Amino acid sequence: MSTRVQHALEQLKATGVRITPQRHAILAYLMESMNHPTADEIYRALEPKFPSMSVATVYNNLKMFMEAGMVHELTYGDNSSRFDANVSDHFHVICEKCGKIEDFIYPSLKDVEHTAEQSTGFKVKDLRMELYGICSSCKEQ
């Protein structure tokens, strides 16, 4: 088990959350795969090991992880939500053909937030930037 997963489990325990084998598996899958899976993909990946686990169990745990600030939900149009266990500041590039999402790091956009606040009077609380294109696998086809 990675130290990142271990640290996340310790954080949950500290808030009084019981660590079930399913909860552990869902969190570990999210943190180790980093491929922005849907709840259904998580369920299908873990179902062989946990045949009695339901899709509802996956959703309920994802909701709890989001409330704990450990997972972000990514929604793009009508597609199923995807889940990201990387809660550090980063952005996404999305393939328009296959839907693959990859993380990328870019310097802070604080100047954009500040300009938006100055010109609108809003207090900016969050920023989400997405770039769209064709991934290398789809380009080759």
Automatic annotation (TrEMBL):
Q: Which InterPro entries match?
A: FUR (IPR002481), Fur_C (IPR043135), WH-like_DNA-bd_sf (IPR036388), WH_DNA-bd_sf (IPR036390)
Under Pfam families, the record lists: FUR (PF01475)
Q: Please indicate which superkingdom the organism of origin belongs to.
A: Bacteria
- Give the matching Gene3D superfamilies: 3.30.1490.190, Winged helix-like DNA-binding domain superfamily/Winged helix DNA-binding domain (1.10.10.10)
Keyword presence, Kinase? no
Keywords, comma-separated and alphabetical: DNA-binding, Repressor, Transcription, Transcription regulation, Zinc
SUPFAM superfamilies tied to this protein: Winged helix' DNA-binding domain
Keyword DNA-binding on this protein? yes
Recorded hits in PANTHER family, A to Z, give: PEROXIDE-RESPONSIVE REPRESSOR PERR, ZINC UPTAKE REGULATION PROTEIN
Homology family: Belongs to the Fur family.
Protein name per its UniProtKB record: Fur family peroxide stress response transcriptional regulator
